[in-house]
Design brief:
It contains 13 helices and four strands. By secondary structure, it is mostly helical. It has a single domain, classed as NCX, central ion-binding region (A middle domain of Talin 1, Up-down Bundle), CATH 1.20.1420.30. The strands form two sheets. Strands 1-4 form a two-stranded antiparallel sheet. Helix 2 packs across helix 11. Helix content is 83%, strand content 3%. The two termini are 32 Å apart.
Length: 314
């Protein structure tokens, strides 16, 4: 691919990301209204699972090549990027408002799930039974969420034909939005990698910046569009839900397919940075009285770039 086509892929991918994120947010909000549930629930489930698809694919591809460090590094890096980079950028656009129940329930679950990785990975290996345990926990959380959703769903027989058409339209928007996000992210990353090589960036720099951020582009695009439209529940649900999915679904799926080992640095450094960022996000929400302000967003972004610089130089 020459530089001209790389620019076309990059720009085209970003445009697709933007439009499809808009469709996804509109569909998610519409579906929540039709089901009579909070948009947070849709953000925690459908949106979060869809935007986490690149991480699942990347980690499976990594373990298939015997690259356990890359698989787990992708999980840690994506979780850090979600809260520090994407959360920070979203807050800069519009301060994020977090519901009291979210701060008491979903965010603590995200922290507990992250801490659960320590007893499983402290021996620097992930077995198939341990991976299955992570997937079982993931399924349980999803079932609990579905039960909460079903309580608010109106009886299908009582829905009018117009309401059913509106629900179908929302689902179509979500489907097109998720598919377009994957396509746009792939195009943008391909173009950016070629441009990075043309300007002389090393493979390490490309991996830690373009590829790492690239797998988080769906979350970034979705949260930015949701922030602009004022749909805070979609943003929060996407960020928190994606981290839970990454930790349980991505790690568990990779380990079930191919049990692997990891290097000590991932557990001595990157793991604890992920925990600190996760706890820091919760702390900022608490002291900000459930609001992530623009100033807090700037702090999160600075923290992310300090981490990237540290990882590139040490």
């Amino acid at each position: 691919m020459n530089i001209i086509w790389a620019i076309v892929f990059l720009v085209g991918g970003l445009l697709i990301l933007w439009k499809c994120a808009d469709l996804l947010v509109s569909g998610a909000v519409g579906l929540a209204e039709r089901l009579g549930v909070s948009p947070l629930i849709i953000g925690l489930t459908i949106v979060a699972m869809g935007t986490s698809a690149p991480e699942v694919a990347a980690s499976i591809a990594a373990v298939a090549r015997g690259m356990g460090d890359t698989a787990i590094g992708n999980v840690y890096g994506s979780n850090i990027a979600n809260l520090a980079l994407i959360g920070g950028v979203t807050a800069l656009i519009r301060p994020i408002k977090i519901k009291k129940l979210t701060l008491r329930r979903e965010i603590p679950v995200m922290l507990v799930v992250a801490l659960l990785l320590w007893p499983i990975l402290h021996n620097l290996s992930l077995s198939r039974p341990e991976s299955l345990l992570l997937l079982v926990i993931f399924v349980v959380l999803i079932l609990l969420t579905i039960l909460a959703v079903k309580k608010g769903i109106p009886n299908e027989e009582q829905q009018t034909s117009d309401e059913r058409r509106a629900t179908s339209k929302s689902l179509l928007f979500i489907f097109i939005g998720l598919a377009g996000l994957a396509l746009g992210a792939e195009g943008a990353v391909r173009g950016a990698v070629v441009i990075g090589r043309q300007v002389g960036l090393s493979e390490a720099v490309i991996g830690l910046t373009i590829i790492a951020v690239g797998t988080s582009l769906p979350e970034l695009a979705t949260c930015v569009v949701a922030a602009i439209k004022g749909h805070h529940d979609i943003s929060v649900g996407n960020l928190v839900g994606s981290n839970i999915f990454n930790t349980l679904l991505v790690t568990g799926t990779a380990g079930v397919i191919w049990p692997f080992t990891i290097g000590p640095r991932l557990m001595k450094l990157d793991y604890w940075i992920m925990i600190i960022i996760s706890a820091g996000f919760a702390f900022i929400a608490i002291i900000g009285r459930r609001i992530i302000s623009r100033a807090s967003g700037a702090i999160l972004i600075c923290g992310y770039f300090v981490y990237i610089i540290y990882r590139l130089t040490v």
